[in-house]
Amino acid sequence: MRSQREIIVVGAGVIGCSIAWRTARAGHRVTILDPDPHASASWVAGGMLAPIAEAWPGDEEALRLGLDSIERWPRFAAELAEDGHDPLLRTEGTLLTGVDTADREVLDTLAGYLDHLGHPVEKLTGSRLRRMEPLLGPAVRGGLHMPGDLAVDNRALLRGLLAAATEHGAAHVPERVTEIGARRVRTEQGTVFEADSVVLAAGAWSARLHPELAETVRPIKGEVLRLRARRGSLPPQGKTVRGIVHGRPVYLVPRADGEIVLGATQYEAGFDTAPALGGVRDLIADAETLAPSLADYELTEVCAGVRAGSVDNAPVLGALSDGVIAAAGHHRNGLLLAPLTADRITEMFLEELV
After folding, report:
1. Are 10 and 108 found together in one domain?
2. CA distances to 70, 76, 78, 161, 210 from 87, in Å
3. Are the C-beta atoms of 240 and 50 separated by less than 8 Å?
4. CA 134 to centroid of chain Cα atoms
5. What average pLDDT does range 193-212 have in this prediction?
């Protein structure tokens, strides 16, 4: 019985870094291959950990996975903090808000669905929502309260995971992978790396690296903005606010440093990561509808990323036919599912050692 494996992790987004940290922490020798961890969708994300707010009829498997993973998040965050890298987990919960009659009907459908599954949520009037979060404006007509949802500072998390993985002995090599196999990968520079196992966790780009993922994983583009309160403006809200504004989803996620992350559009545009004017315009308009005082905030960043969409909104986890281990297709829930994914992949290696 071998007590240690050599593992290559392709991708340094939240999924790849979580796997690398967990496996390095378990005593395996890990190499992470990614030319730019800050180019991942995880770096652009809002940081919501919201299986209840993301639920919808027909997506029962995604809800089951999300609920399983969110139970693991407090321990996951605590262990990362013990390693010296606090991901700034927030526990204030989520408010899901609607503006017009059609938006409120969507919320009613979601509330009925969750109640049927045994996850009742509290319905709130617009005035109650404004008392809870004064940043919200008069256009908000009603909403739902999800106190069990969490949020995390995605950038603190990514920096912390990569740092903690390397502190446990993992090596980060900033090279782009062009060929991949069960025990061997090649990079653009022509470097060949060999290991006992290869984990493919390159987000949407996983589809370009393995033929079995070409039809199941696809890029979903989204713009995200970052805002900061200025002197004289209302302070950021305390809870995550997710809104439906005339049918369009939008979210406002507060940060401990006073920023608000505003997102996110969602549409098919291949691997284009340049922010589009139309997407930015819609986000600003919808955010001002929910919270008019945001017009006084400073716009500090405009960016876009590509999520790894999947055919059934559930991730691809486990060995492919050639032995490559896939951890891809997490769609909007990469951050949420990181603890579950890391645990499952690490358990695979532990089983192989028995």
Report:
1. no
2. 15, 10, 9, 9, 31
3. yes
4. 27
5. 96
What residue type is assigned to position 209 of the chain?
Answer: L
Identify which of 204, 242, 216 has the alpha carbon closest to the alpha carbon of residue 311: 216
Structure letter (DSSP) for residue 267 = B
Which residues form the domain of 3?
1-89+150-216+311-354
Tell me if the pTM is above 0.90: yes
Give the chain's radius of gyration (CA, Å): 20
Question: 33 and 163: one domain?
Answer: yes
User: Can you state the percent helix, strand and coil of the chain, rounding each to 5?
Assistant: 40, 30, 35
Number of domains, the chain: 2
Whichever domain contains 105, its CATH number is 3.30.9.10
Predicted confidence (pLDDT) per residue in 203-245, tens digit? 999 999 999 999 899 999 999 999 999 999 999 999 999 999 9
**Could you tell me where the DSSP H helices lie in 211-312?**
277-290
Q: Do 83 and 102 belong together in one domain?
A: no
Per the CB < 8 A criterion, the answer to whether 224 and 46 are in contact is yes
Task: Let me know whether 242 and 172 are in one domain.
Answer: no
- 85 and 99 in one domain? no
Q: In 10 A of CB 23, how many CB atoms?
A: 26
Contact between 239 and 132 (Cβ < 8 Å): yes
Count the residues in the chain: 354
Distances (CA, A) of 270 to 21, 218, 237, 329: 30, 8, 34, 15
- How many angstroms separate the CA atoms of 67 and 200, rounded? 24
**pLDDT of residue 301 exceeding 90:** yes
Q: Within 10 Å of residue 312's Cβ, how many Cβ atoms? A: 13
State the DSSP code for 67: H
